[in-house]
Specification:
Elements (H helix, E strand, L loop, with lengths): L19 H12 L2 H23 L11 H18 L1 H9 L21
């Protein structure tokens, strides 16, 4: 029996940014990669299959009727997948600076013009 030669390659060490701005840029770059587009497409396809099964209460593969408990589990899976599909965008939103003005905690008017 002939032994197969195993080739061991070096994997580049990835060091994520430590600051929020760098992480936002890296996540935006991730969204543009073909790999993320494949993951997103697969999750989206799975979401559609789950919706089909939940609405019809039928297993997509076996075509058998699903019990209520099984449909509930599918709903749980659907909620999980709908959360996952937008994870990078949610993290970007959390890390991005909020441009809204801070509310003044002082409940009293600061000058006479504000009263009118």
């Amino acid at each position: 029996m002939k032994k197969k030669k195993v080739i061991v390659g070096k994997v580049a060490k990835v060091v994520p940014s430590k600051n929020a701005e760098g992480q936002v840029l890296e996540l935006r770059a991730l969204l543009m990669t073909p790999g993320w587009q494949i993951v997103r497409k697969n999750i989206s396809d799975n979401i559609e299959v789950l919706k089909f099964q939940i609405l019809r209460k039928i297993d997509f593969n076996t075509k058998k009727e699903l019990a209520d408990l099984e449909v509930d589990r599918l709903r749980d899976q659907l909620n999980f997948m709908e959360d996952i599909i937008d994870t990078p965008e949610k993290i970007i939103e959390q890390l991005s600076p909020n441009e809204e003005m801070e509310e003044d905690p002082d409940p009293y008017y600061k000058n006479i013009k504000d009263i009118k």
